[in-house]
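User: Structure please.
Assistant: Input sequence and predicted structure:
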Amino acid sequence: MNIAVVRGTLSSEPRVRELPSGTNLAALELTVRVEGEPTESVPVSWFAPAPAVLGRCAPGTELVVIGRVRRRFYRTGAGTSSATEVVAEHVLPPGRRARLDRLLAEVASRLSDPDPVG
């Protein structure tokens, strides 16, 4: 099972591009700070981003991302490289408490499902 939950602040403007399929892809960079730990930067790919949420995403905005971790490989001039990122299923501000609680309960139920594949 592959589930990721990340809470952090947006460190730069989202970069949105249209894929050949016509789907929009937003690239986000979240900064995560945990007391006593080094600051971490988490790249997030968000396919078909919700315009209402994306419109409120500015550097410094706090967000919660629920999704999955993916490592992708690609070719460069020097050979093959890879990147690890979170692919977002849901992106929302932490202030949306009721919605966030529902989504986290869904995640918890998936984790406790004895047969997650079936």
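The radius of gyration is 16 Å.
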